[in-house]
Structures are given as C-alpha cells and as structure tokens.
TrEMBL record:
Belongs to the Toll-like receptor family. Keywords: Disulfide bond, Glycoprotein, Immunity, Inflammatory response, Innate immunity, Leucine-rich repeat, Membrane, Receptor, Repeat, Signal, Transmembrane, Transmembrane helix. Its main location: membrane. Residues 580-723 form the TIR domain. This is TIR domain-containing protein. The keyword S-adenosyl-L-methionine does not apply. It comes from Apteryx owenii (Little spotted kiwi). PROSITE patterns: LRR, TIR.
Amino acid sequence: PPRVTLPHLICPTWPLCPHNLPNGRELRRVPRALPGDLRALDLSYNKLQEIAAGDLAGLPLLRRLDLAFNNISRLAPDAFAANRLLEQLRLFNNSLAHIPAPALRPLANLRCLDMSNNLYGRAALDGVFGTLRHLRELWLGGPLLREIGRDDLAALKDTALQKFALKTAAGPLRYRAGAFSWLNVTELWCDMALDGSAAALPALLRDLRGKPLETLRFRNLFEFLVFYRGKFDDAGISGLRLDRLLLQDISNPDVLRFDWTFTWLSGVAALSIVNVNFNFVPCDAWGEMRNVRVLNVTGNRLEDAYLYSQRCHYGAVMPKLETFVLANNQLSSLAVLAALTLTWPRLSSLDASRNGLGARRETCRWNGNLRWLALSHNQVTAAAFACLPTGLEYLDLSHSQLDRLDASFFSRSRRLRELRLSGNKLKFIPSGWTCPSLEVLAIDGNSFGVLARGSFGNMPRLASLAAGDNPYHCTCELYLFLQETRRRRRPSLRDWPGNWTCYHPEELLDTAVAAYTPWPLECDVPALVAVAVSGTAAAAAVAAALCWKFDVPWYVRATWRLVRSRYRGRRGGGGVARRCAYHAFVSYSRADAGWVRRELLRRLESATPPYRLCIHERDFTPGRWIIDNIIESIEASAKVIFVLSRSFVDSEWCNYELYFAHQRAVGLGSEDVILVVKEPIDARGLPRKFSRLQKMLGSKTYLEWPPEPSRQPFFWMQLRNLLGSPRDGETGRFRAAVSAASQGRAAKPKGAVFLPFRPSPPI
C-alpha cells in the first residue's frame, strides 16, 4: 500500500498522498513515463545507486520525494533542476560520501531535508545552505562523522530551524568550540558518543547559551557514564536554564552526585531519573531540588531506608513538589512513604506502583493534601487499609493480590471519587459497602460471582462500573441487578457485555451473561409468591381429600415407629443406616473437568438405570462456603470417587476433599473410597500434605484409566461393580433389612425397625 507518513520528518502541512508506485521493488533506476502531475513520489527501499540528470525532469510539480534506504552514492549537479517546487527531500540511509550541495542549489522552496546516516566524514555545509531560507528541518551525519568544525554550520546562521538533528560516529568525536553557536533552532537532537571526549559536552552546552531552545535531546551520549564529584557550574554553564531534565537508561548508581553542590538542580521544575539503577538519595540533594514540582524516579533500586534516612533533615524541603512518581522500585513500607510525604506541603499526587508495599500491618501519618495515590502491582492485604489516607479522591489498588476489603475504610473516605481494584482476588462484595462520593469503580478480573440489587446501594453517585471477567453465578440476583441497572441507566457498565460470562450453573458455563434470560416467574418474586400460595392451597385441598380415601393413621404410626427405633438405636450405640442423595461424589481438578464431563458423567449418568453423581461445579449450593459444600456433599454420597492426576496433586481443594473423605472412611469403612488413576503419578514423590493419598495408594486397590479404547469397557465394568447397582437406594444394615422385609424374612438388625411396607421408588 502507499506510504502516508515518513519517519524522522515532521511536515504536517504537506500533502500526504504519494504516488501509488509501491516501494521495495528492487528498482535500479528511476522509472520512466511517470505521470507529469505527480506531487509526491516514494522510491524508498530499492537499489538505486544514482540520480542522474533527467531522471526527474518530467516531474515539475513534485513537492515530496523519498529516496531513503537505497544505495545512492551520486547525485548529478542538475538532478533536481526541474523540481524547483520540491519541499521535502529524504536521502536517509544511503551511501553519499559528500554532502551534495550542487544538487540542492535549485531547491529554494525546500523545507525538510534528511541526509543523515550517509557516509560523509565531515558536516561542512556549503554556502548553498544559506540560500535555503525556507528550511525548517535538517538532519545530518552518519557513522563516519568524527569531527564537527567550528565553521561547519556557519551557513545556517540566518536560518530559523524548527529542528536540527546530528548523528556522529561511535568513536571519539572532535567537537570544536563554537560549532553550535551558529544554530538558531528550537529543537536539537544529538545522537553522539562522547566517551572519549567528555570535555566536548560542556563546550557544546556553552555554545547553546542564549539560544531559543525548547527541547534538547541526547541519545547514546555515554556508553559508560561516570559522574565525577565536583561543582557543575565550573563547566561555565550556570546561565543554562532548564524546565525539564531527564536522565534515563544510565548505569550509574551515584547519578545524583554529578553536581556535588546540586546548584544545577535548583532551576529544574520537572526532574526525571528513570532506569539508572541508583539506590540512594543524599540528604543535601532534597533541599537543592527546591523548585522541583514533578519528581519521577521510576525503575531504580530505591529501598525504604535509603529513600527516607533518619540522618537527614527533611523539614521544609522541596516546598513546591506536587507530583512524586517512584514506581518500579524496591519499597516495602507504607509508613516510611507516608512519613516522607509529610515534609512536602503541596504534594497531591503519588505513584508507588510496582513495589512491595502493603503486606505489613503499620500505622501511618500522611500529608493531608494527598489526593491521588497509585499502589497497583503491589502486595496489599486487608490490613493495609488501616495505613491508607482517607482524604483521597483517586485510589488504584489493581493487580495487588488483594483478597478482601475493609469496608470501614471506604465509609471514612468521604472524598474518594475513583477506585480501581482490577485484577485482584476478591471473592465477594461486602454487604452494605458504603462510599458516599464514589463515581468510578473498576472491580473486573476478580473472583466473586454474585452481584445483587443492593451491592452498590450505598454509593449514590456511582456512574461508571467495570465488573467483567469474574466467575458469575447466573441466577436471579445477577439478573435483577442488571435489570435495575438498565432501568436506572446508572451505573454505566463500561465493559458490558464483552467480558461478562457465566461460570455457574454448569449448563450455562461460558455463556455470555447477556444471553441469560430466566423464565418470567423465576425471578419475579411477587408473582412467584402468588403462584406458590395458590398452588399450596390447591395442594392442601387435594391432600385433605386424599386423607379420607387413604389410610393416614397408618402413615402416622409407621413414622412414629421409625423415629422411636432410630432413637433407641442411637442410645444403644448401634449404627444407623445411611440413605444417600447421591451414589458417588466425584473429586477432580479443574484440568480434568473435561474428562469427567465427557467420559465419567456420560457413562454413569446415562446408564440404565442411571447413577446419581455429585460434582462441585454443578451441584454445590451457590453462595455457601466451599468447605461446607464439600462436607455436606461427601456426607450425602454413598461413595467418593477420586480422579487422580498430576493436576489433582497440585490442587488445594482436592486435598481438602481427600481429607474429609478419609475422615468419613475412618468411621464407615474404606470401601466407600474409589481411586481412579487417570494418568500415572509417583506416590513416593507426592508432597507431604498428601500422606493420606500415599497410604491409600499403598494399601488399596485402584482403577487405572486405559488410553486404549479396546480396554475401556472392562474399566467401566469394574467401576460399576465397585459402585454397586444404582437401584440400591438403601445402604448398610438398613438396606439388608428392607430387602429381607420385602422377601418376608424377619431380619432385624439392632437399631432398625420393621414397618408395614408399601413399595416406593428408591432415593
């Protein structure tokens, strides 16, 4: 496709519609028969070696020409004789051994010229450049430029440049004093190495004294930078005034000592020391930065004791500081950071993200003017809220491993308007969460699954909410919350509907929440109550009628005998027979969920008659504690099936389930536990916390899942034998008693009672 922009050159007023001739065709000469009305031509990335006289003679209207990334070593003196309207010429990255001044003579309208990254060894400009009075951007130099003479740039003395860029060789540079004194430029970029000629830097800066510079940029200045202790004013640049100073990507931990008396820092308003690996702030440095309003020390190795030293006097230092950025350091104490802010009366914004803050229980005193605090990517716990300032308007705690909120902190934060908690581990939203002034809330990427109509009822100003990427329980509570949000039109859901998906119940797993539409009466409580009352009344009427027809006293006597029998059996120490809601509880890791649903459930629950299996992602009660769900589900199951794999060993919840099953097996017998080895595991290499599993594998026969389809029918036959018949609704001695009673035998174990028997479907 045609290229629309050119790197390195800033010419926003020019037409940006180059000719449709694609670059990179490996052209060796300028194509013939080009349209005579062309205004822009891109011939970059070809193999041109020369622009000869006449190559561009048929393009008198040409204003923009890109010849970059070729191998041009010669420009004919009259190469551009017919292109007097040319405004932009790019010769970047070619093989010119000399600056082609004769070829540039006709280009009086030239505004942007890029001749950098060529092979000339001197940057001496011919008098032709003095005639280019419209020139605004000039790029010179290359890998062979090792000397800048005093008068090399003299031709530019009357040219008001917006940008001048100079690239020099990687080796030692000979800079002659006065070379830059000819420049009249607003923006100066220098890509030069001064390792072998460090004295050139003060000379260069002296030449810029009094210039209308707004931006001065150095790149690759020193490969190995060493600042010697001394007074920087000795270099003779005390008149140089700076508004912003950036020291970046320098491998020197003592970078602040480049000006021993720090007099150079006293005139800086925005100081950035980024990625220089320094880890210590001298006491006297703070006081000399008295005019700094913005201080950025991102990406260093600052620790608590070296940032805030007890030996330093911080009273009334940096009185103008408003913004402090110390992200990506090695801080761990919020109390130390808070103590430091007390010395800065105007500080309102603090960014301490990407440290190790928030893991300690501390007491903190903060600057009362602090309004903006970023602590993302830290290690914040719920205890850290006691150390946070309550006068904030903005607080960012995203991606900080936070698993619980302190609701009392937010009720005290009367000014808080924006809160970011994305990417944490929050498992629930506090009931009655109060934050009176909150307007923007981000809680996406956490672990909670329930939102209800009252979740944000105590946030009257909440206008924007991001809450996607959470494992939502698609129930009436969530549906009613969304219905009310749409009706009130606030808060607006910023990430709706893309990141909102259902996690529970299983039949809606990975379904978009927007697609969840319950049947009309399911979530309409008044209508549901009306239907329930009507149905109950009708059922009561039917039951009353049936009582006259059926032997109700018989059912009363039978129930009374059963209760009395169980009571006597418990007092006598006899066991009570167990009747279970499920034939088996299945314990497995999330990584094996596909196999469980695809193989185990399909085979057993579709059998005739079917088995009833309990799995957590389908049968656990939403909103209850996981541990309670595990215990009750195991107690309600006749057997427990463990699907063993390497992922099972890595799961903390699987370990809990194994523990509870083992405790039950102590009282009821280990035959209730069935081990299915889905993939080979080394019992001897299991972690210590799986000692129960080691004992079971060493003493109990287990089933191995065969990968070969031909052997799998035998596996399912073995598993069904261990589970027993799905028709067996009773277990233990009670099952035997019922069986005997149905056959007319008088088997009556201790603690059991025979009732007048009427057949009913098994549980």
